Model the fold of this input.
Amino acid sequence: MHQNYQDINSIYADGEMADITRAFDWSATPVGPIAEWPLELITVVNLVLDSSFPMFIWWGKEMTQFYNDAYLKILGTDENSKHPKALGQRGEDCWPEIWDNISPLIRGVMENGKAVYRENQLIPIYRNGILDNVYWTFSYNPIRGQQGTPQGVLVVCSETTQSTRQLQQKEAELNRVMDHMAEGVGITDKTGHITYSNPMSHQILNTDPSLFSERSSNSSEWYNTHLDGRPMLDSEHPTHVAMATRKPVFGFEFAIERPGSNKIILVMNAAPIIDALGNVTGSVAMFSDITVMKNAEAVIAESEERFRMMAENSGVFIGMGDKTGGVTYFNKAWSTLTGKPLEELLGFGWAELIHPDDKEEYLRLYRDSIEKMVAYTAEYRILSSTGKYKWLLAFATPRFKTDGSFDGFIGSNIDITDRKNNEQRKNDFISMVSHELKTPLTSTIGFLQMAQRKAAVAGDPLAISLLDRSHRQLEKMTTLINGFLNVSRLEAGKIYIDKKYFDMAVLMKEVEDNMFPDGATHRVIFAPVEETWVNVDKDKIEQVINNLISNAVKYSPPNTNIQVACITKGDFAYVSVKDEGIGIKPSDQEKLFERFYRVEGHMMESISGFGIGLYLSKEIIDRHDGEIGVDSVVGKGSTFWFTIPISLMPQ
Done:
C-alpha cells in the first residue's frame, strides 16, 4: 500500500532538475502524479536530486527515468541532446542505441536484486547531435520496495571518457615507442604466456609474429641454455625469477640454440608487473642480441691471452697502465731486470728505481703524455738487480675503449745500455780528437797570421790572396771542431748556460756589425729592433742567430736577400731569418733539428756540413725554455725562427 503525498512539495531538493521534476506532468507517465508516488520513490528521488554526483533512476516495469543536475551535464544541453526529453521517458525509448547492451544488466538487477559494477566501460550515446563514444564507470543498484522486491534501478555513474582516452593515448604512444625500440620487448601474464611482443623481438629471434602469441617465455622450442651450454630450467628464466622474487633482474645473459639455427646470445632485463593490490600479474622483459659482442669478446680474450704469453716470454720490458698513470701490468722481464717482485713494481713502485737525475723529467713527460693522451718516447736510467743503472728506451702508446674513451697506456722498454756506452765512448773519442786537433790548428792559425802580415809588408798580392783563403778554411775547420766539442759536451751534460740580462736590440746590432765575409755574397738585411730585454746566455743565442744566417747563405742563391728580424710576440722575443733559397720539403722539416741529419738531393751534394748546427741550436733554445722551427715552401725559400722568454728590464 502506497503512502500518498498531497502536492509537489514532497520534492524537497534544490537545483535545476529539482525544479524541473516538480513542474513535470508526471500524470502522463506510468508513475503517475507525485501525490501517488510510493515513499521509496520519493526518498530515492530526493536523494538523487540532492546529490552532486551523477545519478540516474529507472523505475518500474517501464523503466521511467529520473536524473539530477550532475547527470544533466553529462547529457548536454544542445538542442539535439536527450535532455529534457529523457526525464519521465521510458528507458528503451531514450536509449535505443545502447539498449541491447544495457537491458540485460538492468533485467538482472530487477530479477535477482544483485548490483552490477563496470569500470571504464564503452557505452556510446547520442548527445549534442552525434553518437559519442563515451566511457563510464558505473554501478546499477536495486531500489527495493517495502517487501524487499526491486522496484527500480539506481544508477551511480561517472564519465571517464577523458581519462580513458588519455590512458589509451598513453598506451598507444608506449606501443609506438616499443614498436620502434632497438631492443626486443615482451610482456607475459603470470603464467609466462606472452601477451605482447614488439617487432624487434621477432627480428632478433627470427620468428613469425602471428604465431608468437602462442608461446611462453620458457617454451621448449627456444632451447634456452646457460652460456656454458647447460640447459636453463623454466624457473631460471629472468621473467620467472622476476615474478617469483618480485624484484627486477638485470643483465642476465643466456643463449638460444634452436635446431637448424645459429646460436643466439641474449642479454635480458626483466621486471615483475604488480597491480594496485600488490599482486603479481605478469612480467615485462627487454632483451638484445649480443652474439657479435660476445664473439668479439672471445676473440679479444684469446688475443689477450696470446699477448700475455708473448709478453711473458719476451726479453722486451712490457707494461700497461691505467688512465691515472699507475701501472697495472708488468711482464716477467721487469722482475729479471730489477730483481724486484712484480707486485712491488705495480702502481708507481717502478718510479722509485729511476735514476735521480732522470726521474723528475721522465715523470713529467710520462704524466703530460697521459694528460694529453698522446704517445711518447724517452730515454732514462733504472736501477738493475746488479746494483748498477741500465739505460732504457721507452715507447708508450695510449689505449682507448670501444666507446672511444681513454683507458691508459701500453708501453715497451728496451735495454740500450750498450748503445749509450758506445755513444759515450764515441763522444769521448770525438772530444779527445777535437781537443787534439785544436792545439795544432791554433798554432797553424797563428803561423798563418804571421805569414799574412809578412805578405802584406812584402806587397805580394798572390801570397796575400792564398793566405786569406787558407785562413778562411782554417776558420771553417775551427767552427766544425767546436761544433763536435759542443755536441760531446751537450750529450755528456757538461754544456753550461750562463744567463745574463741584456737587450736583444744590442745583440742584433752586434751580429750585424760582425757579419762574416761570406755575407758579402748576399744582401743580409736587418730590420730595426725595439728594446727587448731577455735573461739568456748571450754568446749561445748569438751562436744560434749566426748559424741560421750561415745556413741561409748556404742554401740560397748568391745576390739574393736574407732578412733578419726580432719582434715581440706575447711574452716572447721572436727572431726570424728568411731566405729566398731552395726551400725544404715537409717530410724533411720534421727531421731538420735531429743530430747529424742532412737533407738529401743532388742540389745538396756541393754544400758542406755534418748536420750538427741546427741540432745544437735546438738544444740551446730548449735550455732557454723557448721554441725553434721552420716555415718553408719548396722553391720559394724558408724562414727559420726561434723564441725566447722576455724578462723585465733589471733595475
